[in-house]
Amino acid sequence: MLLPVGGGWLAAVLALGFCTAASADDVLFENVRIFDGKSAALSAPSNVLVKGNVIERISTAQIAVAGALRVAGNGRTLMPGLIDNHWHAMLARTTPAQAFGDVGFNNLVAGDEATDTLMRGFTTVRDVGGPVFGLKRAIDEGIVKGPRIYPSGAMITVTSGHGDFRQLTDLPRTIGGMLTRMEQLGGAMVADSPDEVRVRAREQLMQGASQVKLTAGGGVSSPFSPIDVTTFTEAELRAAVEAAENWGTYVVAHAFTPAAIRGAIAAGVKCIEHGFLMDEPTAKLIAEKGVWLSMQPLPEDLRLGFPVGSVQRAKADEVWPGIARSYELAKKYKIKTAWGTDVLFSRALAQQQGAILASLARWYTPAEALVMATSTNAELLALSGKRNPYPGKLGVVEQGALADLLLVDGNPLDNINLIADPANSFKIIMKDGVIYKNALTK
């Protein structure tokens, strides 16, 4: 596994394996067809120069630069790294029982999963719930290989709301009393008044949250959270919105039903997660208000993973039929739609991250789906303003953008299923100008 052109120690390092990172001042991709993250067609054969961690130059003419590491594209597709805007880095692979167990084990598992995530071509994730700040730091400092992480920290919920994984034996809750295990780990925080919400939101921002996550309605995986309920009052939601806006960023709210969605919008929430049970008037409201809708084409295997007869399975059976309808409404009203996976507690499903993206072909063309998972998702990330942990342009292949790039063996605009097979399709994976995978042969 050696780059066709380029020598010395760098080529030797790259030959060692997929997960060996290598860096150079200049990397030159030659003879590639570019999917720029916005267009519905590939470019003419082009050359792309990466200098440091930025795309320095794109040209159909030959680029002459001394000492650059040259990558022979041979007509392959160069595209932006993929972005998953609804990911749970600390919860994707552990079981529910493990999530409340040994912290050291969970962090090691999450670190290994982060490397796998990057090797699937996902160079950025927006984490919408979990104690992810330490993992993000380890990745940013080069200790662990993984994607860029836009962290929310602990999701904020109410007593009995989605994200409240306490047992009945944990009740009654003493206001200002000892935190439960769930809260000590930083997975979720319970807040039952505007003042409590404000404190919990500010705590996440203090730790480095790029956006704040609240659960405005019931959820599938939580034990005591019926789908139809609304949770926070408008005043409570508004307290989080004010805290986030004071920091120049925004609130994202988990919400399925029209009532939950409308309550969140009234409070100033900028992004709705899921929205699977919305009706047509609510879809129209989302579009009129310019609110983002972050949806996930949840796979059937996720629903079937809940035991038959369980509360969670019953709630999943209630939600899943609404997924297709929600995508149809999002298209009808031209809602600003982001994409993510929401994988929880399953390594097997995490490995299907690219396949879940490819399943958008049910509603979108390959180009529309890939635009959503690159430049559109990057637009949502940019809402974090000065809380953006990675200033710079993501999700596009253009001059001045950050160099998160995939070299694909084939044309994903013709065959989106290439994204579902990253081991064979992605010949080079670059994040921040560093090559983490090189599968090119001589």
| Assigned CATH superfamily of the largest domain | Metal-dependent hydrolases
Distance between the termini: 7 Å
The residue-averaged pLDDT reads 91
Q: What global shape is seen?
A: globular
Number of domain modules = 2
Hey, roughly how much beta strand do the residues contain?
Answer: 15-25%
Uncertain runs are 1-20
Question: What CATH architecture label of the largest domain applies?
Answer: Alpha-Beta Barrel
Explain what the structure shows.
By secondary structure, the chain is an alpha/beta fold. The protein has two domains: 117 residues, Roll (Urease, subunit C, domain 1), CATH 2.30.40.10; 282 residues, Alpha-Beta Barrel (TIM Barrel). 32% of the residues lie in helices and 19% in strands. It has 16 helices and 18 strands. The strands form four sheets. Strands 1, 2, 3, 4, 5, 16, 17 and 18 form an eight-stranded mixed sheet that branches. A five-stranded parallel sheet has the order 11-12-13-14-15. A three-stranded parallel sheet has the order 6-7-8. The N terminus is likely disordered.
Keywords, separated by commas or semicolons:
single chain, 442 residues, alpha/beta, Urease, subunit C, domain 1, TIM Barrel, eight-stranded mixed sheet, five-stranded parallel sheet, 16 helices, 32% helix, globular
